């Protein structure tokens, strides 16, 4: 006889997700500021290196962001007289997605281009662009491993890389996703979905659209101000606005947790660099 | 007697991240807070915009004599000026960035009225010369007016920078830019008495290193001017012998090896 109960159904009865997390827990997150050699380090050629970089991994999703700027724009048609131009591009590597998906071309993939535009909008809301007229700040995000949530990881990495480059920001932007689905008859609101959960929530893995009660919502906020910078819902909400509000609420709590992790990593590094300048500690600028 | 330090949410010397709220900006009888480098004001509150440590410097509005005291609290050196009067004291709250890229000064942008160090790339007879802007030279006159300047340059190992401090400052370093910006030097801006009969190749040749001031940000490039005594050629190579030339007068330089004289608009040496 065919067993119709899958492992996930059993786990969901005790509110544990497929990777062992509780519904409100985010994945293990690690941030590394200054992952690449920047212009400050000795003999690195200014034209080849970057101003700041950050390597962020949320669970198995790993993203590297490199920031260069502010520098002169080559083409005068691109420059703005009162603020800096922000040039954002997001790329995936061929080894980033599991399975044999090499037929995705990063330069024409619509999803990636859309996510680059969203990233640019998010960062424009936060960087104080008016301080650098007629200059260009370029942000490049490279997705090294994609286990779901690459836009959120990219936003987090971009914030950290901009802080590493010393570009002034209004506030740190943190991103997290939240979702809801009907599994085993009970509604669960979960935070920080991985690839498998996203496929269940949006039904992209196989078979038509998701069932009408599933919601997947990536959200980016400035947690210290409580402002939502990005929130993207492509699911069909079957006349239930309360569910959306709950999921949004959960996503904002998730962003706050992400912010705590990022702030702790950043303050430690900031304190270390400050002590190095003062001569009280020896800090390797890049431990690679 | 030292004035009381401003009461900030994140005490002076701690590391802050962008978006951290520092203080309420309201002028009380004894204290006025001013947003310095790395901070911004929103809805009456002062927020940090950089990753770094909080510093506070005073601009004592009192005319009494000031003395400088250096206190080291928790590893962060701060410079406070003591004033003997009880008048309204303005505190400039700024963030000293702990990002290593600001050691090189990668986050500054050339602005109007700054003195820059550049290199002549092309001389287009007879009207103008193209200049590659390589670095910004902080000038005593310009630093006192701008709070947005990157005053976080490591000027000396332990002193904080204080733009309007009357105490003697060590000379700030040159701020190099990551990539050269492009500028243009026009015929009418070469000398203090502008005249359209000056030939540009009597003043500059391609390859010269010059000090110039940014007059305006033009359509395509920054428009520069050397119409001051202290601006002009800093280093020039003799065409014939390839050696560095020495200045003979304000308009001539001579190569010490071949004794050939060439016309240049020489910069007056700056007083140390």
UniProtKB/TrEMBL annotation, chain A:
Name listed for the protein in its UniProt record: Exoribonuclease phosphorolytic domain-containing protein
Protein family per UniProt: Belongs to the RNase PH family.
PANTHER family the record matches: EXOSOME COMPLEX COMPONENT, EXOSOME COMPLEX COMPONENT RRP41
Highest taxon, organism lineage: Eukaryota
Every Exoribonuclease phosphorolytic domain range: 25-168
Gene source species: Discostella pseudostelligera
InterPro entries reported for this sequence: ExoRNase_PH_dom1, ExoRNase_PH_dom2_sf, PNPase/RNase_PH_dom_sf, Ribosomal_Su5_D2-typ_SF, RNase_PH
TrEMBL record, chain B:
Main location: nucleus
Pfam families reported in the protein's UniProt record: ECR1_N, EXOSC1
Cytoplasm in keyword set: yes
Annotated GO CC locations: exosome (RNase complex); nucleolus
Region of interest called Disordered, as start-end residue ranges on this chain: 143-172
Domain Exosome complex component N-terminal: 16-54
Subcellular location: Nucleus, Nucleolus
Protein name: Exosome complex component CSL4 C-terminal domain-containing protein
Organism encoding this protein: Discostella pseudostelligera
Taxon lineage: Eukaryota, Sar, Stramenopiles, Ochrophyta, Bacillariophyta
């Amino acid at each position: 006889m065919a067993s119709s109960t899958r492992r996930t159904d059993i786990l969901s009865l005790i509110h544990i997700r497929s990777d062992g997390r509780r519904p409100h827990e985010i994945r293990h997150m690690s941030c590394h500021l200054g992952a690449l050699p920047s212009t400050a380090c000795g003999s690195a050629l200014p034209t080849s290196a970057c101003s700041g970089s950050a390597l962020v991994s949320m669970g198995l999703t790993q993203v590297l962001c490199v920031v260069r700027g502010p520098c002169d724009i080559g083409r005068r048609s691109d420059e703005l007289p009162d603020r800096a131009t922000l040039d954002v591009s997001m790329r995936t590597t061929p080894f980033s997605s599991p399975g044999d998906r090499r037929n995705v071309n990063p330069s024409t993939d619509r999803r990636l281009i859309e996510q680059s535009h969203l990233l640019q909008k998010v960062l424009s809301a936060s960087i104080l662009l008016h301080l650098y007229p007629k200059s260009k700040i370029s942000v490049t995000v490279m997705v090294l491993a994609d286990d779901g949530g690459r836009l959120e990881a990219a936003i987090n990495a971009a914030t950290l890389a901009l802080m590493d480059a010393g570009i002034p920001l209004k506030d740190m932007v943190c991103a997290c996703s939240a979702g809801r689905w009907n599994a085993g008859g009970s509604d669960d609101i979960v935070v920080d979905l991985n690839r498998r959960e996203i496929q269940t929530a949006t039904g992209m893995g196989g078979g038509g659209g998701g069932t009408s009660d599933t919601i997947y919502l990536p959200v980016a906020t400035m947690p210290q101000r409580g402002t939502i910078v990005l929130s993207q819902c492509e699911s069909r909400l079957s006349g239930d606005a309360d569910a959306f509000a709950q999921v949004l609420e959960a996503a904002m709590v998730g962003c706050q947790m992400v912010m705590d992790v990022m702030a702790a990593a950043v303050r430690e590094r900031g304190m270390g660099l400050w002590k190095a300048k003062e001569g009280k500690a020896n800090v390797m600028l890049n431990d690679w | 007697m030292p004035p009381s330090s401003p009461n900030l949410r994140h005490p002076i010397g701690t590391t802050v991240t962008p978006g951290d709220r520092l203080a309420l900006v309201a002028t009380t009888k004894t204290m006025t807070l001013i947003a310095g480098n790395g901070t911004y004001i929103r809805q009456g509150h002062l927020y940090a915009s950089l990753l770094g440590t909080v510093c506070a410097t005073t601009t004592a509005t009192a005319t009494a004599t000031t003395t400088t005291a250096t206190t080291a609290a928790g590893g962060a050196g701060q410079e406070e000026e003591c004033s003997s009067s009880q008048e309204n004291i303005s505190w400039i709250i700024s963030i000293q960035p702990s990002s290593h890229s600001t050691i090189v000064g990668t986050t500054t942008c050339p602005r109007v009225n700054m003195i820059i160090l550049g290199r002549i790339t092309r001389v287009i007879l007879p009207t103008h010369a193209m200049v590659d802007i390589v670095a910004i030279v902080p000038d005593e006159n310009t630093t006192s007016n701008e709070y947005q300047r990157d005053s976080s340059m490591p000027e000396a190992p332990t002193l904080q920078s204080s733009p309007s401090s009357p105490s003697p400052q060590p000379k700030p370093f040159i701020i190099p830019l990551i990539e050269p910006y492009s500028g243009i030097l026009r015929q009418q801006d070469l000398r203090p008495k502008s005249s359209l009969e000056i030939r540009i190749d009597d003043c500059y040749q391609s390859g010269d290193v010059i000090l110039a001031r940014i007059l305006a940000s033009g359509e395509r490039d920054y428009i520069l001017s050397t119409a001051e005594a202290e601006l002009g050629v800093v280093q020039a190579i003799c065409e014939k012998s390839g050696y560095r030339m020495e200045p003979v007068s304000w308009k001539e330089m001579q190569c010490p090896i071949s004794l050939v004289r060439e016309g240049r608009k020489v910069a007056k040496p700056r007083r140390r």
